Amino acid sequence: MPKKAKEPETQSEEGWEEVGNFWDDMFLFEKPGEFITGIYLTSIDNVGVNASMVHVIEVDDDRIGIWGGAILDDRFARIQEGWKVAVKYIGDETSRSSGMTFRNFKVMAMKTDTVSTPSRPKTKSTPPNDDIPF
């Protein structure tokens, strides 16, 4: 049986650091036309109470999470890590075949020669969006 260890009292005690989310902040699409661009890092599945996907992109040295859904999960599955991506929220639409409402997005990707290696995550507010292909 392993020896019971004392729980670290502070973050710096014995070099311990708390491990949190892989992303610094979440980008939430609220209005049609909103967009975000960055370098695609990874997708993480089974996140949160709904076991959703989170797609993580790097924007200005910050890791930004984007909640997945049918459209985004499908699009990100075809993008390679390290590619530049742009995601624009089109708005809620109704499927002609099922009559169900869904959130629609336009997703664009561009191959890049270099793969981003972001530094340790920092907390930051909503990222700026420049160099947008829409």
Strand tally: 6
Which percent band covers the strand fraction? 35-45%
Give the % helix: under 10%
Oligomer: single chain
Outline, from the CA principal axes?
Answer: globular
Give the biggest beta sheet.
Answer: 6 strands, mixed
- Helix run count: 1
Order of helices and strands: EEEEHEE
CATH class of the domain at 21-110: Mainly Beta
Distance between the termini: 59 Å
Radius of gyration: 18 Å
Structure report:
By secondary structure, this protein is mainly β. The protein has a domain at 21-110: Beta Barrel (OB fold (Dihydrolipoamide Acetyltransferase, E2P)). It has one helix and six strands; from the N terminus they run ββββαββ. The chain has a six-stranded mixed sheet with strand order 1-4-3-2-5-6, covered by helices on one side. Strand 2 (35-47) and strand 3 form a beta hairpin. The model is unreliable at 116-128 (pLDDT under 50).
